[in-house]
Design brief:
Layout (H helix, E strand, L loop, with lengths): L1 H31 L5 H5 L6 H10 L6 H13 L5 E2 L4 E2 H36 L4 H15 L2 H15 L17 H39 L2 H8 L4 H18 L1 H19 L5 H10 L3 H29 L10
Antiparallel strand pairs: 1-2
Helix pairs in contact: 1-13, 5-6, 5-8, 5-11, 6-8, 7-8, 8-10, 8-11, 11-12, 11-13, 12-13
Amino acid sequence: MKSVIKHIFQRLCSKILLLLAVSFLTFWLMHATPGNFFDSLRLNPQIAQDTVDRYEKLYHLKDPFFSQYIHWVINALHGEWGYSLYYNVPVSHILGSRLYNTFILSMTSLLLTWSLAIPLGIWAALRRNQWVDRVLSLFSFAALATPGFYLAVLLLYAASRLGTLPLGGMHSPNYDDMSIVGKIGDTALHLVIPAVVLSLASIASLQRIMRGNMLGVLRQQHILAARAKGLPEGVVIYRHALRNAFNPLVTLLGYEFAALLSGAALIEIVCSWPGLGSLLLTAVRSKDVYLVMSSTLLASVLLIIGNMMADILLTWVDPRIRYDNQN
């Protein structure tokens, strides 16, 4: 246990340096591109130049590059993420709601992925080389080869023709007038297209992995011995084989969560889902420096948490793994 805690502490220390590198690169890219947020204000004849200069001085936007970056880092360490110039509110007020929306989409996709991929993988393994296995293989290859944003556009077009699902967003216009059950149902309907698109490639990949693991376990000697003893096939499959086949997949849970968070950005933009991805696009287009910095840093932290979850699950599932100097 001590070795695991020591390993996690060492990983966290290295991730702090990674976060600093990501933040510095993002800050440099925002300054390397031409223009800034106040360029559009200068073109507005109703806004005085003195007002623009005062705002630039207030947010240290006229300071040298390194001075601006150090100022932002010090404020971030004190919990001050800066002020969004585009939304005219503190950045922390925006990130909270957007993070919640991204979390809902990612968790829905994660539950959908695992609840479908595991049974389909078992079914394909038990029906090896039969029509079920061939159909699932074709589905997996097609899902992995289809870009997510293209599939999202196709589903949105189909929904517009059929009129069965909402065309983007998270809530309907009359959301505030609905009951609690109505609000849950309305959000669920808006989740269908982005969650399905985000889950499809993961379902295909995880299903193929589960199929391969199950086939490998079914060939092992203890499974042959259990069948030779006359145990029912259901007991052999679901009590003995499934546990050994499923254990390696637990380690993928953390990485899957991190991959969903990173892959959700593009789907959020296409489906107009109000999450971190669409927020980051708006911030970049408007040159809202502090909002871009905070959004990128928060997304990086979520990815690191997902990877750390994978490491912890790996030691929990497989006790043979030790993080010490002897191994």
